[in-house]
Amino acid sequence: MSRTPDQPRLTPQFCFNQTALRDFLRVSRGATDDTISQNLNALVTPGAKPFDPSITTARQPRPIGRRAIDAESCNQFKEKVLFPSWQSRSDVLSYCAGVATSPDPEDPDHVLRQVEDVRARERVVDERLDPYSARYFPRDTRTEALAGLLRNERMVETIIRSRTWGLVGERCDNEGVEADVALDAWRKRQEGAS
């Protein structure tokens, strides 16, 4: 099984560094969710059951690659690998969402945007000569750009978790529980343990 990355130190600088933020999310997803089939296959102990020659006489209803995994291994995987990875990404996304909705007094482009706004207001526009001269698209602030990135990443996270939980459900018993409900139950167990 691949090792999930450690959660980065949460600071506004980390959030505004979109490359670092995306890299953490990508590596974390790659370690657990993107390789979920391999991680689940690693839970199956080959040779756990002795070879039975009678199984070769009849067609097997379930392909060998989709063998059910014993409940204890599944629960250990969910408790120790899957849910902590999801929680780590949730923590990063929630923290950065807070940063994106807070005022940003240290925005390095603040003065530049103000100058561009003043120039745009002072510009004389004759739309008969150039119908496109009135166009002005102000640049997004750092917090607006971060908020847009987080919206996209949350949608990606929802899709990835749904796919991962479906694959886990094929091999392990999810008891018909949705991924978010299972993660919330895990969180409560973690709070109770600490």
Class by SSE composition? mainly alpha
Strand content: under 5%
Distance between the termini: 26 Å
Compute the CA-based radius of gyration.
Answer: 25 Å
Largest sheet: none
Tell me, briefly, the overall form: elongated
pLDDT averaged over residues: 81
Helix content: 55-70%
Low confidence ranges: none
Q: H/E element string? A: HHHHHHH
The count of β-strands is 0
Please tally the helical runs, counting DSSP H or I stretches of 4 or more residues: 7
Number of domains: 2
Spell out the blueprint of helices and strands.
Layout: H1 12-16, H2 18-31, H3 36-43, H4 71-100, H5 110-122, H6 142-171, H7 179-193
Helix pairs in contact: 2-6, 4-6
